[in-house]
Write a structure and sequence with these properties.
Largest sheet: none
Number of domains: 1
Strand content: under 5%
Structural class: mainly alpha
Distance between the termini: 21 Å
Oligomer: single chain
Order of helices and strands: HHHHHHHHHHHH
Number of strands: 0
Helix content: over 70%
């Protein structure tokens, strides 16, 4: 899962959300520098990633991407699933996507000093470009995939993944809507079993 899903699965818990957001920007040695609440969010992020990567329904979509995305198919499907979450947002939240996105931007800005340097640098672009809400639009998701293409040092075709999504949209969407409720349940249980209510 990518930014939008990780933020959504944090259940509006501020420091848990921060940890869930920064997990990909830090290494294992840096985890100890953060508060227990933020560390809990980092653990949640890693649980979500592991559960997602191993889920048989997700793997079906990953294999559908394999001909064009190769070994990077698991990375690409995370981004496509953020798009599917955005377009199915009303199924999973009583808050509008626009309101949710703005709340996340405010939270991240309020905690800017504890964010990793790379995330601090990217945050103004995320906010000005409204990336979270943009995941629900073709332009936004293509922009994300294009940025991935630009950052790679090897020949890549990430942007073609959206074409694959469109060609088999019903399949991808049905798979997502089968998988995501399970992920919500599992991540909520993980929080209940491992973290205090204060997180």
């Amino acid at each position: 899962m990518n930014y939008l899903a990780h933020l959504h699965l944090s259940n509006h818990k501020p420091m848990l959300t921060i940890g869930n957001m920064i997990a990909d920007f830090i290494n294992n040695k840096q985890v100890a520098f953060y508060s227990p609440e933020v560390q809990a969010g980092i653990k949640l992020h890693r649980f979500i990633d592991t559960y997602t990567d191993q889920h048989p329904v997700v793997r079906q979509g990953t294999e559908r991407l394999r001909p064009t995305q190769g070994k990077y198919a698991p990375v690409v499907i995370d981004i496509l699933y953020d798009h599917l979450l955005a377009v199915n947002w009303d199924k999973y939240s009583t808050m509008s996507l626009a309101e949710f996105a703005q709340k996340q931007y405010v939270l991240l800005e309020e905690n800017l000093k504890i964010l990793p340097k790379k995330l601090q640098k990217n945050l103004p672009k995320m906010i000005s470009g409204n990336w979270l809400e943009g995941y629900g639009k073709e332009k936004g998701i293509r922009y994300t995939l294009e940025r991935m293409d630009e950052r790679t040092k090897f020949p890549s075709s990430f942007v073609t993944a959206f074409d694959t999504l469109q060609e088999s949209f019903v399949l991808f969407e049905n798979e997502f809507n089968t998988f995501y409720p399970e992920l919500i349940q599992k991540s909520t249980r993980f929080q209940t079993d491992n973290f205090s209510s204060e997180n």
